[in-house]
Write a structure and sequence with these properties.
alpha/beta; Rossmann fold; about 45% helix; single chain; 8 helices; seven-stranded parallel β-sheet
Length: about 240
Amino acid sequence: MAEQTRTIVVTGASRGIGHALAARFAAAGHRVAGLSRSGTAPEGVLAIACDITDADAIDAAFTRVEEELGKVEVLVANAGVTDDTLLLRMTDEQFEKVLDTNLTSGFRLARRAARPMVRARWGRMIFLSSVVGMLGSGGQVNYAAAKSGLVGMARSLTRELGSRGITANVVAPGFIETDMTDALSEDQVKDYKARIPAGRLGGVDDVAGAVEFLASDAASYISGAIIPVDGGLGMGH
């Protein structure tokens, strides 16, 4: 049976994993809006400039999506930032900025997305975490805390909204070839590959495939789950 087309919002759609996700959904025939600070997104995607740390900006973006594409049925909260430094050097501002963008914004997006999903009694919320959220990483206390927090959020949303046909899941990528990993040295990449049972870094399509599945009708009985896309690095956490 053919998959029903849906209205999908992807945050952080200007580059990397978010860009690949938005493009993949659009290629499959879905109605896709890509939110980013720059307001850029792949061809065939409704590009909207949005600061996801601002609840009013999120509301305005969703209102535009509803007017142009229809009620949002799938939320993919992908946008994130890093600001790495060791604990004793990390400022409150560095900690709070990363938490605000990577975790609190997930709450803001979920709160706004839930309204039409509850009325429709159908919805998918997918949060992009990281292997770091479960394994930890020196110099990333802020990032790891935010990414692990998404797990508790998704599981609480599952308990609140599960009876309304809404699922909430977490995809936890490992080391994926993006602009961020391009900045790594050859020795760093070699070290990471040695720790990954698959023996390679992942590609954005590896992550997109998992997200696409969780957004589908086939995943209706999966909720509150962590789906690792890390080549075995975290061994399922």
